[in-house]
């Protein structure tokens, strides 16, 4: 499986508005080769943060979306038949270990157990990647950094990391930006003016208050950006909010009608 490669100079780093000291913590971890775990709800900026930091630090970024079919070979590499010859092809993790890149394992709790086992010798002071198939044992490049993320909210209890895996990472908790940050973020991402974004962010705050009662997850910053983008394209506010901030959250007709009442309360 191929990881996507993004290499950019700091000047064109993807936009990320810091919520606190997360950029400093990440930079310190990166300088010292300490693995980083990002925890937080869907659409709150984890992926954007990693892309931003990789560009700031001038390190290539290999992103792997983890799923329950992802095998250790998908990360490490495999022998492939090329023009009648069998050749070894590095996976994204091996490439990152050799080159000194950031390997970002998105939704790491979805990965199979054999994947997490591979990470262990890489994420303690040994920093080595043994490749059984070739007999090679690679010492990680000093700039190699392992980053993983997951959403602790909706995963069932079985889908958490083992303590022996978790305790190999420093961890940063992410949440939706507070309003004073979310308004400029959404305005910048969508091109809609801040005064028109403000009520959308107010609505988002109210919807997030329903998490755990009527809603499994609060509305993501990503969806607020979608709503603002539709409005900027000329869609009536009510329709944009319905399609981007209500329908994606629930299928339950009663809950939806409750959410529409919140919309009326915010927009009149
Ligand atoms: N602090 C921020 N600075 C800039 N953009 C942000 C910030 N927070 C959120 N965003 C916006 O929110 C969108 C969603 O963020 P992102 O894709 O990084 O979420 P995520 O936490 O990785 O979600 P998931 O867990 O679903 O993968 C981004 O595309 C960006 O537009
Ligand atoms: Mg993400």
Structure description:
Belongs to the CbbQ/NirQ/NorQ/GpvN family. Pfam families: AAA_5, CbbQ_C. This is Nitric oxide reductase NorQ protein. Residues 35-169 form the ATPase dynein-related AAA domain. GO terms for molecular function: ATP binding; ATP hydrolysis activity. It is a single chain. By secondary structure, this protein is α/β, with parallel strands linked by helices. It has 2 domains: 4-173, P-loop containing nucleotide triphosphate hydrolases (Rossmann fold), CATH 3.40.50.300; 179-267. The protein is 41% helix and 18% strand. It has 11 helices and 10 strands. The strands form 3 sheets. It has a 6-stranded mixed β-sheet. It is elongated. Mean pLDDT is 91; it is low at 1-9. The structure holds adenosine-5'-triphosphate and magnesium ion (MG).
Question: Which labels suit this protein?
Answer:
binds adenosine-5'-triphosphate, Rossmann fold, 11 helices, elongated, binds magnesium ion, alpha/beta, disordered N terminus, six-stranded mixed beta sheet, 41% helix, 10 strands, 268 residues, two-stranded antiparallel ribbon
Strand order of the largest sheet: 1-3-6-9-2-10
CATH architecture of the largest domain: 3-Layer(aba) Sandwich
Overall shape: it is elongated
Distance between the termini: 50 Å
- Number of discrete helical segments: 11
Order of helices and strands: EHEHEHEEHEHEEEHEHHHHH
The first-level CATH class of the largest domain is given as Alpha Beta
**Whole-number average pLDDT?**
91
What Rg do the Cα atoms give? 21 Å
Bound molecules: adenosine-5'-triphosphate, magnesium ion
Largest sheet: number of strands, sense, barrel closure:
6 strands, mixed
């Amino acid at each position: 499986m191929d990881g996507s490669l993004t290499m950019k100079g700091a000047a064109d780093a993807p936009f990320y508005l810091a919520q606190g000291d997360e950029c400093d913590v990440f930079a310190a971890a990166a300088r010292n080769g300490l693995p980083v775990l990002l925890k937080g709800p869907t659409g709150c900026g984890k992926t954007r943060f990693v892309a931003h930091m990789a560009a700031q630090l001038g390190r290539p970024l290999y992103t792997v979306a983890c799923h329950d079919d992802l095998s250790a070979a998908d990360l490490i590499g495999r022998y492939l038949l090329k023009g009648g010859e069998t050749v070894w092809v590095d996976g994204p993790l091996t490439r990152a270990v050799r080159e000194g890149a950031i390997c970002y394992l998105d939704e790491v709790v979805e990965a199979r157990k054999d994947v997490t086992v591979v990470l262990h010798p890489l994420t303690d002071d040994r920093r080595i990647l043994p490749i059984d198939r070739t007999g090679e044992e690679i010492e990680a490049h000093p700039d190699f950094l392992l980053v993983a993320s997951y959403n602790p909210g909706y995963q069932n209890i079985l889908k958490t990391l083992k303590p022996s895996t978790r305790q190999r990472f420093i961890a940063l908790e992410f949440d939706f930006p507070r309003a004073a940050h979310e308004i400029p973020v959404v305005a910048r991402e969508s091109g809609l003016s801040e005064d028109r974004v403000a009520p959308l962010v107010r609505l988002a705050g109210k919807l997030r208050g329903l998490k755990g009662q009527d809603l499994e997850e609060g509305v993501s910053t990503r969806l607020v950006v979608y709503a603002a983008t539709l409005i900027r394209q000329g869609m009536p506010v009510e329709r944009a909010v319905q399609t981007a901030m209500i329908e994606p959250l629930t299928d339950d007709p009663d809950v939806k009608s409750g959410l529409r009442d919140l919309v009326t309360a915010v927009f009149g």
